[in-house]
Structures are given as C-alpha cells and as structure tokens.
Design a protein that fits this description.
By secondary structure, this protein is an alpha+beta fold. The chain is built from 17 helices and 20 strands. The protein has helices at residues 34-51, 155-164, 185-193, 212-223, 238-247, 281-286, 288-305, 310-313, 335-383, 386-389, 415-422, 432-437, 451-455, 464-485, 494-499, 519-523, 525-530, and strands at 24-30, 75-81, 84-92, 100-111, 114-125, 130-140, 167-168, 171-172, 178-180, 201-204, 232-236, 258-261, 278-279, 445-447, 513-514, 532-534, 544-546, 550-552, 561-567, 573-580. The strands form 5 sheets. The chain has a 6-stranded antiparallel sheet with strand order 1-6-5-4-3-2. Strand 19 and strand 20 (573-580) form a beta hairpin. The relative contact order is 0.09.
Length: 589
C-alpha cells in the first residue's frame, strides 16, 4: 500500500549496499474523537483493499452489530487474499485504569521480493489529544536483489492527513506544500520556534523574477513528494520572503533554495543556524529526483529517532491470535502451557520495545545537552568570562555568585548566575509545578497571579514540558533585563532588550515578546478586566493594574501567555500577574 507516483529503477534511489529499506514513520495528532479517527482509518483501508482486489474486511472489533459492550475480543487475524493478512487489536493503554485506549491495524501484503507491512495505531490518553501513528516497512526474503533504499510514502498517509485535519503541535500537517504570504509570516515564525513542534518544517523560496505558481508546480511539489506526514512544507512568496529573512537573520532562505528547520529553532543564535540544512537551487535543478531524496533524508532520520509520545509509548505489543487449525500429527499442548508461553513471549517483546524507547529518550537528551553546552561555550567566549567562571560558584537554589559583581560598569551582573547553571546547578524546569517552586531564583521578579492557571498547563498532554522551558527562558531574560533597567542601562523596554540583547545575556525570541494588547482588547470591558491583574499597593492603590505586555509561551496566536508589568522605574521590580492559557480575545472568543 505504498506509492511514490514517481517511478524509478529499483535501487536507483541511493545505490548503497543491499539491506533493509528505511521505513516510513508518521506521528501526528487529530482533534477528532478516538472512535471517529479509527472509523476514518478503517474506511480508507477498506477502500484501498477493495481497489487491490482483496476481500473487504468485516466491521472492526467492538463495532460490529450485536457485539457485546462488556468485553469484545482483544485481537483477531483476517485473511483477505493470497498472502494478505490483516491483524486488528484494541484495548486499554498500559498504566492502569483510566490511562486511555488504543486501536491498531497491521496489514501485510506481498511485495516483489518480500512482504510489505503497514501498521496504523490510534491512541488517546485521558484528557489528551488523539495520536495517530502510521508505519510502513518492507521485509525482504534475503534473495540478494537490490531494492529501493527507502519505503515510499504510503498512499494511506496522503489520504488520511486532510481527513484527520492532522496537526503537529500548533501546525497543520498538509500533504502538499502551502504558499505563505506576508501576512502569515509571523504565524510561520511562531510555528518554527514552538517547543511542541516534533516534525521538521521545510521552507522553500522562489527565485527572483520567476512566477510563484510555476515554481511551486514544476519544482516544489515534485521536490516534496516524499515529505507527507514527515514534515510540513511552505513556500514563501516574494512579500513573505523579505519579512521572513529580516526576522530570521541567522536562518534565511532565498534564491530558490529550500531550508529544513529542525525542531527547537533559536532565531537569536547565529550558531543555531548551522543546524538547519539548506538545499541550493543549483542542486535541485541538476537532479530533481535525487534532490527530493536528499530533502527527505533528515525528516526520515528524525522520525526514526524521535521518542514516541507517552500515549503511543503506552500501547502494548501486538497480540496475534494463535492459529485456528493445527496439523493432525502435531500434539496439542495444554491451554495453560500455551497461555504461559504466549505471556512470556509478549513480555519479552514489550521489554525490547520499552528498551528502544529508553534509548531514543537518552539519545535525545544527550543531543540537547550537547547543544546547550555548545551554546553556553559560545556565550562565554563572546564575553571573555572563561577565567571569571572558575572564581564563581552556586550558593544554593538562588544561583547567587559568591564573587563580587562585575565592576566594568557596562556588563550585566548575572554572569555568575549563568555560570552557576553551567557548573552543575539545576537546569530548566520540565513542568510548571517545578517552575513555580523555583521562582525565588529571580530576585527582581514577583509572581502575583493565581498558581492554578499555570499548574493547569501541566495537565495538557505532551505540551507542558516545552511550555515550561520556554516560560523559564522568558523569566530568565526578564530578570536580566530588570537588573540592567534598575541601573538605567537597559536601553529601552523589554522588547528592545530582546531585539538587541547584550553579549553574554540570555536571548529570548523578540517575536515572542509583545509590548501590549490591541486597541480592540483594551476597549472591550470584559477582556480588559481579565488583564487587570494583582499588584502590590505601592504600585497601584487599587491593587490591580492592566498587564497588556506579555510573552508568547509556545506558537500560534492562541497559545499560553505570561503577562507582566514592568515597574523597574518605580518599585524596581517586574510583576508577573498571569501564566496560563491565552486570555480571551478576538481569536479565542
């Protein structure tokens, strides 16, 4: 059930040594309810089987008319044609009652030199989104015949993506590239910087003096044929290209080139720009088919290395029913013996699957640690603080340096604060529960809001950790800005600080720092009242102040926000009045 729609000689894709083809793995979310997502998948699967001349499978487990609602069969195997097997199972996720549920389909069909296997899993945890994972792989017979180096994109992926309204964090996952205009640049940049994003984002530019439509149809669409479900793809029109490259000065793309933006983009870091590969126009036009293979290589690698989201990781290994017919000469074992052997076999398979997930998580953490160490090293070299770091150390949770502050009169006073974190003190918090417990590390910031709003973010599946880290980045930058502002050395407001962050200070994306709300929000009585947040009496006698300035925690215009009041020129502090889901406005109402 795979199709590239771009035929090529077998083995001509990348002519390396014989071996198993690189599998295809798609992981997305959908806003559809679990049962509706499963029904759509079954419908598309049955449609493809019918086109291939196979028998149409009966209604799925637990959905057939008259099926008992108490305990439907856990698994079944259907033979739908010559060498065509469909395994289906469903059940609760591992983790105890109430953890969630899953449905899975595994289809095996004959291939010229082996067997194709397609596995579709739909998993939903309690209170979380519905996750959909589609895997396609080929099992060769070992005949030594050279086969293509990668499994093509399954046709099921192309049909399901629009039907499911598939998403990757804040971004919609389309089966084809989408043209971006100047008005949409901000949303695209928010998407690139969003910590929830798991898939790479491919951004294509259009050569000067060439029509956008012609370049998209003749070059970009064929170039992205291997990306559906593995990456999101966009094309910048001329107006969008200018605004995009001005905002991302270290991550630009132009002249017909295509750039792949991996997760966790840091637009303020020159060094981070080297992480995101560029495919030049000349290489694309030289051999479009080979360029498409090169463009898909990094998304394929990332899809294979990414740890599974918790709901999918909690799906147990597939239970295949035992054969219904046994040869007469074969002795029949006792049912208890068969059950014990099956349980042991499943336990071994589950242990291998869990170990693979642990390895993926470990590798991801190691890569992140290396990147953070590299960025910290770059910052120390810029500020010339190599020698100073050896004379500073942490004195507790507040990360206060024991050495005297710098006396240069120009540099920030938080070098020891950052040095302490580099020398082994706690890093970024993974949850808002941890973040709230560590607010004492920011002596010039005061949290006046309701902790319940921030703690509620931890309950949102697979989002809280990224949001908490980004909020911590914002608080760190606010603390450094406040230290400069009380000395009169900030050079402007916080947004200007983000746009021109001094060397050695923590960089926060300028586009995520917003000076104030729109006139519409300020004029709307209810919406304005939501943003009248607590402050001490020394700031305002009413103990309330309008906090229009905010930080975007995550991507998209409805993502969580951190609202604050800059009172450095008065009380010498910044008051954080709200951390939580986006307050009401024209887009959330």
């Amino acid at each position: 059930m795979t199709s590239d729609r771009s035929p090529s000689p077998a083995g001509a894709d990348l002519p390396g040594p014989r071996g198993p083809a690189t599998p295809y793995r798609m992981t997305v979310t959908t806003a559809l309810p679990h049962a509706e997502a499963v029904a759509l998948a079954d419908e598309q699967l049955a449609s493809w089987l019918k086109q291939e001349g196979c028998e149409e499978p009966p209604p799925a487990l637990g959905t057939a008319p008259g099926t008992a609602s108490g305990a439907p069969p856990a698994a079944e195997r259907l033979r739908l044609g010559e060498r065509v097997l469909l395994d289906r199972d469903l059940g609760p996720l591992r983790g105890g009652p109430g953890a969630g549920r899953y449905d899975r389909r595994r289809l095996r069909t004959p291939a010229p030199h082996g067997t194709r296997q397609l596995t579709l899993t739909v998993a939903t945890a309690a209170g979380g989104p519905t996750w959909v994972r589609l895997e396609a792989e080929t099992h060769n017979t070992g005949s030594g015949v050279r086969t293509p180096c990668r499994v093509p994109v399954p046709e099921l992926a192309r049909t399901l993506l629009p039907l499911l309204d598939a998403a990757d964090g804040p971004a919609a996952v389309h089966p084809a590239p989408r043209v971006i205009t100047a008005d949409e640049v901000d949303d695209l940049i928010d998407e690139l910087c969003d910590p929830e994003r798991r898939l790479p984002t491919v951004v294509a530019s259009v050569p000067v003096n060439l029509p956008v439509d012609h370049w998209v149809e003749e070059v970009v669409r064929p170039l992205c044929r291997q990306l559906p479900g593995l990456a999101t793809a966009y094309v910048l029109d001329p107006g969008a290209r200018t605004g995009f490259n001005v905002a991302l000065e270290y991550h630009t793309v132009y002249g017909g080139a295509v750039r792949t933006y991996l997760p966790e983009v840091d637009p303020a870091s020159r060094q981070d720009g080297s992480r995101h590969p560029v495919l030049a126009r000349g290489r694309i036009e030289q051999d479009l088919r080979r360029a498409a293979g090169l463009l898909a290589r990094e998304p394929r690698r990332l899809a294979a290395d990414q740890p599974l989201p918790p709901p999918l990781a909690a799906v147990p290994v597939l239970r295949v029913p035992p054969p219904q017919v046994r040869p007469a000469a074969e002795p029949v074992a006792e049912p208890a013996v068969l059950a014990r052997e099956e349980q042991q076999d499943r336990a071994e398979q589950q242990a291998r699957a869990d170990e693979l997930e642990r390895v993926r998580h470990t590798l991801r953490l190691e890569r992140r640690d290396r990147a953070q160490t590299r960025d910290g090293h770059e910052g120390r070299l810029r500020t010339g603080t190599r020698g100073a770091l050896s004379g500073r150390h942490c004195t507790g949770p507040g990360l206060v340096p024991t050495a005297a502050p710098t006396t240069s009169g120009t540099g920030p006073t938080t070098a020891g604060h950052r040095a302490g974190r580099l020398s082994g003190c706690p890093g970024k918090p993974e949850t808002f529960t941890e973040l709230l417990g560590r607010l004492g590390e920011f002596p010039l910031l005061t949290f006046t809001g309701d902790q319940k709003n921030a703690l509620a973010l931890d309950g949102l599946q697979c989002a809280g950790a990224g949001w908490a880290r980004l909020a911590w980045d914002g608080l760190t930058a606010l603390q450094e800005y406040a230290e400069a502002a009380v000395r009169g050395a900030a050079g402007g407001d916080f947004k200007q600080w983000c746009e021109h962050t001094p060397d050695g200070c923590h960089r926060f994306p300028p586009r995520k720092a917003v000076r104030g709300e729109s006139r519409t929000v300020f004029s709307h009585t209810k919406w304005k009242r939501e943003r009248m947040l607590p402050v001490p009496e020394c700031v305002d006698a009413s103990r309330r102040a309008f906090m229009g300035a905010h930080l975007r925690i995550g991507g998209g215009r409805t993502a969580p926000r951190l609202h604050y009041l800059d009172d450095c020129s008065g009380s010498g502090r910044i008051y954080v009045g709200y951390i939580g889901l986006h307050l009401t406005n024209t887009r959330t109402n």
